Amino acid sequence: MSKSARVIVSSKGQVVIPKYIRNKLGLHSGSEVIINYKKNETLELLPIKKDIFSFFGKGKHKAKNGPIDVDEAISIAVIENDRD
Which residue intervals define the domain SpoVT-AbrB in the entry (predicted)? Predict the structure, then answer.
């Protein structure tokens, strides 16, 4: 079942996506979407799904020499912090 909604384009080219559509697509403030323009003059809105690591900076930390013990990592961080 498709639902439609009438929206207004602002002077900046912005539109407000109705709440029921945002909820259905899992969109929230800061969400990114792809808009495809179709030949029959319709738009397709696709949410960009992000992995969990994108919410925490650059993602996975890449250790230089393999896995490291948590206590050792804390000690190294304290030493490096004291140098600064």
Answer: 7-53
In a domain, 12, yes or no: no
Buried b (16+ CB within 10 A) or exposed e, 66-76: eeeeeeeeeee
The reply to whether 30 falls in a domain is yes
Summarised one tens digit per residue, pLDDT across range 65-80 is 666 777 777 777 777 7
pTM for this prediction:
0.53
Distance CA 18, CA 5 (A): 7
Residue 32 lies in a domain: yes
pLDDT at 3: 81
Tokens read off for 2: 């498709």
